[in-house]
Amino acid sequence: MKTGVQTDPKVIDQVISDFARTTDEIVSLGELKKLLTSGRKLVMKYGVDVTAPDLHIGHAVNLWMYRRMQELGHKVIFLIGDFTTQIGDPTGKNKTRPIIPLDEIRQNAEAFIKQAMLVLHDDPELVEVRRNSEWYDAMQAKELLSLMSTVTHDRLVSREMFRKRIADGGEIYENELIYPILQGYDSVELKADLTIIGSDQLFNEMMGRTFQEKFGLTPQVIITTKITAGIDGKAKQSKSLGNYIGLQHSARDKFGRVMSIPDSLIGDYFEVYTDVPIEEVATIKANLAENAMRDKLRLAWEIVKRYHGKEAADKERHWFERTFSQKEAPEGLEPISVGARTITIYQLLLKVLASEGPSNSSVRRLLDQGAVSVDGKTIKEIDKNLELPAEGVILKVGKLKWFKVTP
Predict the structure, then answer these.
(1) Terminus of the chain with fewer CB atoms < 10 Å: N or C?
(2) Beta strand pairing status for 401-406 and 75-80?
(3) What is the pLDDT along the chain (407 residues), one digit of tens a residue?
């Protein structure tokens, strides 16, 4: 793609207008417009700690915005916080995060990069991968102390999560207190012009603006993005909670997970996770009570189309309507051999769900909830023996998982 910087005021105004649907706050709009009309290729910091290897569509909100900026000719510096991951930002946590081994951090980083490139343009003129161990591994203690001396204790403990932890009688460790200093200083090292972050990272990136001014640099523009509830309608998306739609999830999993969200989230998900025109989204929100199922199907189709293409979205909608709405087993299920003619339903579930790492309690819960059936008959008894015929049986788990099981 062309890498010249786009400065047409109409194009820039349209980009800013399009960003409004996913933007919570801009620090500041005037500075952003000045940057975008300067004609200079901007350095955009996309900083991530790699505490876990999976990205979800919540993370991708920022990635799509960076991609749009790339299309204006600007460059993303994909900053892997391999050093700061060893500390762990305590955002949203009421206790200190465990330290992650370096080997795991490296593996997570590679997985993170691969997933981010599902959205970002991979042109080397428009994206570069850096790691903050580049400067922190080489930083001497006196340099770190000098940096820390420019920030007061009162400012650091003014962070909302720290105030809450103090009020609850919890403890704060010194490495957690200096985390915002380290994240902020990253912006000095990169000479960042812009960063796009979740609103929970605003405190840290404001520290970046402070440090840039102290080092004689122009402070970065900060765009914070909206954070929505996960598919359970409660906490934000998280792999540990299982309430997320992952970039690595298959088209079928994405479709099914969207269909599981509460109706109250449909409008927000259209606004934040699709590129459906905002005027159309407003109409969907206004008429949601009348058309919730239809709109949820459209939402699932739009999200799958964005990541997998129209053909995949059409296929998954057809599959969903046939298997769920019409309650028919899908065609073409690949047989799973369990290597035995007689097996308990408990053992069978552990085998077919092995890739999900099921726990004993999760398997028991599925059975207790009546979410397991064999050839259309619900099974709740955990120790029930099954005699598998040579042609196999159809196992259904939950609303969307189907398996053909053979001896």
Answers:
(1) N
(2) unpaired
(3) 555 899 999 999 999 999 999 999 999 999 999 999 999 999 999 998 887 778 899 999 999 999 999 999 999 999 999 998 887 655 545 455 567 888 888 998 999 999 999 999 999 999 999 999 999 999 999 999 999 999 999 999 998 888 888 898 888 888 888 999 999 999 999 999 999 999 889 999 999 999 999 999 999 999 999 989 999 998 888 877 788 999 989 998 999 899 989 999 999 999 999 999 999 999 999 888 788 889 999 999 999 999 999 999 999 999 888 777 656 666 667 788 888 888 999 888 888 887 666 778 878 888 888 889 888 889 989 888 888 888 888 888 877 678 888 88
